[in-house]
Specification:
The protein folds into two domains: about 140 residues, HAD superfamily/HAD-like (Rossmann fold); about 110 residues, HAD superfamily/HAD-like (Rossmann fold). The chain is about 30% helix and about 20% strand. The protein is built from eight helices and 14 strands.
């Protein structure tokens, strides 16, 4: 335990441990140090373009050992929520690799324009086009009771080619057109962070979230009662430090986490 009462860590993945397909220097060593110290941790991500098995493989390629139970993503939280709801048609706007979390649900055909009780919006990347977005709108419009489910509200992310739109802009368009608010299952929703610290078995105030997104990671964690540590990698921009959101720590990269953690105990 650190001197200010911290007991556990949440790691964002893309932008913190790696940038797209390139590992961030020192990230694997930092995570390995955390594991050696016996510090409870989870990997939390708004990635909805692939399932947990693929994320485990990706981490392993970069020298980070994890199992699926150590990864929390919006698909896991959304699937758990759907199991608690009345049965109904589920319209999935996610990539094929991310559909594994929704096995067992009554998923509609990919050309359906009605019959959805739940419309689930994830990261389709360049698969988004007018027809696809309009089909999601028609599904919502056909049933005023249909729920709009957002797998995170990340606005953009860092790719090798530059910044790219993520889920939030498409969810915002559907909220505007349908006149209803999305139920958010990923960061920055408090329910997502609550699921994380409950899985860790520690109180919110004893957890620090390490992320590169000032809003989804830092502000979201702080709103849930956690600490937020911002890294200067991934989508970080110097202007992030000029706004109203004030991180509890700013690290050049996750490689500095062990040193920072030790400094909290001194």
């Amino acid at each position: 335990m650190s001197g200010d009462g911290l007991q556990a860590i949440l790691f964002d993945m893309d932008g913190v441990l790696y940038n797209s397909e390139a590992p961030i220097a020192g990230a694997a060593d930092a995570v390995n140090w955390i594991r050696e110290q016996g510090i409870p941790h989870l990997f939390v991500t708004n990635t909805s373009s692939r399932g947990r098995a693929a994320l485990v493989d990706k981490l392993r390629r970069f020298g980070v050992t994890a199992d699926e139970n150590q990864i929390l993503n919006p698909g896991v939280v959304a699937a758990a929520w759907l199991r608690s709801q009345p049965p109904g048609g589920v319209a999935l706007f996610v990539r094929p690799a991310a559909r594994e979390e929704f096995a067992g649900f009554a998923c509609l055909a990919e050309d359906a324009e009605s019959g959805a009780a739940y419309v689930v919006i994830g990261d389709l990347g360049d698969r988004w086009d007018y027809h696809t977005l309009n089909r999601a709108f028609r599904l919502l419009h056909s049933d005023p009771e249909a729920r709009l489910i957002a797998l995170g509200m990340t606005r953009y992310w860092q790719t090798p080619e530059g910044l790219a739109l993520d889920v939030a802009p498409f969810v915002a368009a559907l909220e505007n057109a349908s006149g209803r608010s999305a139920l958010v299952m990923g960061k920055p929703a408090p329910a997502f962070f609550r699921a994380a610290f409950e899985r860790l078995g520690v109180p919110a105030g004893a957890v620090v979230m390490i992320g590169d997104d000032l809003h989804a990671d830092i502000a979201g964690a702080q709103a849930a009662g956690m600490k937020g540590g911002l890294v200067r990698t991934g989508k970080f921009r110097p202007s992030d430090l000029d706004g109203k959101v004030r991180p509890d720590a700013v690290l050049d990269s996750v490689a500095d986490l062990p040193r920072w953690w030790r400094s909290q105990a001194s």
